[in-house]
Amino acid sequence: MADSKMDTPLSPPSNTQSIISPINLILFALLITLVYVRLRPKPSPTLSKAPPPIVFRTFTPPMLKPYNGENKMPVYLAVNGKVFDVSNGRNFYGPGGPYENFAGKDASRGLACGSFDEDMLTKDLEGPLDDLKGLGEEEWEAMRGWEERFQEKYLVVGKLVAVGDSEATKEGS
Questions:
Q1: What is the tens place of the pLDDT at every residue in 49-93?
Q2: Which of 3, 53, 64, 88 is most buried per CB count within 10 Å?
Q3: pLDDT for 7-34, tens place per residue?
Q4: Residue 155: strand pairing partners
């Protein structure tokens, strides 16, 4: 009897499943894909070109006027003698925006009074700056609020002086 067991070849049990089944192949392919996605080299990020440096300047109303966002110019506006670069808010202050009347101008009185009308802006660019006489306490408070908001959000790039001011003539020469 011992001899008969030795003569029969050993065969794998019939109830075991093969490792190479369709579901295992799908799972293996999924595993390889996930490993590749996690470990593949990422493209190096490209840095955007830095904007040109902004130098603090003294502006007169005629010097400020071109900074209204047209012709690819930055958008500047003045509040209470400070000139702000509001180019990041071009949608509001640039051409077509709700505050476009203030771009390139002294917006102090208009912001203080909450008015977008042209008559709130200084028309004579060669004349004296608006002294803001006639503003009430609430209007002064509103203008200070706008000034604080601009200081938190935008860069101060200069100050606004009247044409003929000694600081303007120093800067212009």
A1: 877 777 889 999 999 999 999 998 999 999 999 999 999 998 998
A2: 64
A3: 555 655 555 567 788 888 899 999 999 9
A4: 85
